[in-house]
Design goal:
Bound molecules: zinc ion
Distance between the termini: 24 Å
Strand order of the largest sheet: 1-3-2
Helix content: 55-70%
Radius of gyration: 19 Å
Strand content: 5-15%
Number of helices: 13
Order of helices and strands: HHHEEEHHHHHHHHHH
Structural class: mainly alpha
Number of domains: 2
């Protein structure tokens, strides 16, 4: 498992998923398209002028990219921006939301949540590698399926599934808000005219080693661009009236962790900065805005920023 290549590999190689959990994926695709339609209608209604005019031209594609991705290609009619998000990505957000709900009820399952997080991280890294060598991705198990396989720290989860409908309903807004942020982050890349390195760098490369090396040299996007897109999305959400609670989304944070890792030693080679740094930067923007924040939440925000500082020190980040 290499964390360095993960973010580099992920974006460039869309692939064909052959999931055995086809049903989950199929219904996830329908829901993904529904959510994106709602999100775009909301941007049209409440968004800033720049968000509206940027989104107007975007072609949304629900495909199999491992992580969401935005690109702008030029043709004779002008630029042709596209945003790609996969149904598997949405499903991951749902799974993480389910896990959050479960540990909020049973604190003794914290350790299980951690194990599940590690599992997701490894799976995504593995799938990114497989994608680079044109192999189909492996399935990602739902929490209850994962729990059944490892037992021990996860004992007791299976009995909580299937979640009652009222519980399922609590996950919907979490997933929706996380996707909203992700969509705006990608829209931000387009609005800010960020340039990514395209597939052309792989042209003429034949061996897997050559391709891997090209990946390692090429930053798909710079870290600076990632922070800028996060900030753009956060300000846009604040403008559109998001609450402080909606802006800090645990499933999204966990997914960032799973996809960008936790080790700043690798940051320089990784296009996506460390997840905790990204979240700390988002929190700083929220704190400096004029949206109202409950005192407990503000306390939690400051605690997170301090936690991030301690983490940076302990990992001896630059
Ligand atoms: Zn990005």
């Amino acid at each position: 498992m290499t964390r360095i290549t993960l973010a580099l590999l992920i974006a460039l190689y869309p692939l064909l998923a052959q999931a055995s959990s086809k049903e989950d994926l199929e219904s996830s695709k329908t829901k993904l398209n529904q959510y994106i339609r709602l999100i775009r209608a909301n941007i049209e209604k409440h968004g800033t002028q720049i968000a509206k005019s940027t989104d107007w031209n975007v072609n949304f594609i629900a495909d199999q990219s491992i992580i969401p991705y935005a690109e702008s290609t030029n043709n004779s009619e002008g630029t042709n921006p596209k945003i790609r998000i996969s149904s598997q990505f949405r499903l991951l957000l749902v799974y993480l939301g389910e896990m959050q709900l479960i540990i909020s009820k049973k604190r003794n399952l914290m350790k299980c949540n951690e194990e599940y997080g590690n599992y997701l991280f490894e799976r995504m890294a593995l799938n990114a590698k497989r994608a680079a060598t044109s192999l189909p991705p492996l399935d990602i198990s739902a929490p209850e399926v994962f729990a059944a396989k490892i037992d021990g720290v996860c004992a007791g989860i299976s009995k909580m599934f299937p979640l009652p409908e009222s519980e399922e309903e609590k996950i919907t807004p979490l997933t929706y808000n996380a996707l909203y942020f992700v969509y705006l982050h990608e829209l931000g890349h387009i609005a800010l005219k960020h340039k990514a390195i395209g597939d052309e760098i792989f042209y003429g490369l034949t061996t897997e080693n050559e391709k891997m090396e090209a990946f390692l040299k090429a930053n798909v996007r710079t870290q600076h661009q990632e922070y800028a897109a996060d900030a753009w999305a956060t300000r846009e959400l604040i403008h559109e009236g998001a609450t402080a609670e909606q802006l800090v989304n645990i499933p999204l944070f966990e997914l960032l962790l799973a996809s960008s890792g936790l080790d700043c030693q690798f940051e320089k080679a990784n296009s996506h900065p460390m997840a905790t740094d990204r979240y700390a930067a988002i929190i700083r923007i929220i704190l400096s805005s004029n949206i109202s924040i409950r005192p407990e939440l503000a306390g939690a925000y400051h605690e997170f920023i301090n936690f991030n500082k301690r983490l940076e020190n302990s990992l001896s980040c630059p």
